[in-house]
Amino acid sequence: MAKKKNVVIEDNRVDKLENLLQNYFKQIIIGVGVLIVLVVVAYLGFNSYKGAKSKDAGNIAVAALNVASLEDIPEFASLVNIYPSFSDYINLSTGFMYFSEDDMDNASLYLSKVSGNYEEIAVYVSSDLSNDVDYSRYLADGNLSSLWYYKSILATDNATTRSSLVADFKGKHPESMLLSLLASWGIN
Questions:
Q1: Domain that holds residue 142
Q2: To pair with 52 at 20 to 30 A between CA atoms, which of 26, 94, 131, 155?
Q3: Burial state string for 20-59 with b = 16 or more CB within 10 A and e = fewer than 16
Q4: Quick check: 31 pLDDT over 80?
């Protein structure tokens, strides 16, 4: 008859893992708990920061709605000191407010303080206040490119330059409604 041999299988990896868990179980649980607490605290902190930013933006919007006359605009403009991270938006809004009240000096002053994401809009509005704006700076890659083309075409007196600008405008913005306005004025 055949004899069965007792085969002893040693699985050192499993034994080592069991020993590790037995010896360091408490420390592992504490480490995992600390990691979970850190993730929760980071999440709550981030949401709190986002909430504070939203609240600040809401306060600025409410303050803008409360501007009823020319005399109220300086109070709104002073919000730059309270909310410096919103300074470009506040200066742009203040410039718009003065512009709508026909106070062009103050409008120019506040629009000139705008930079960053709002700079192109501020320069565009400023171009209505003075002729010192270089339209070509924004023609190629400005966010308001079609409006810059339109202003450039209307501002130039040189027929050759105007024709070139119209051709570029048609090529880059073929669906623009501004082209129909130019055509209605006989500018092709």
A1: 134-188
A2: 94
A3: eeeeeeeeeeeeeeeeeeeeeeeeeeeeeeeeeeeeeeee
A4: no
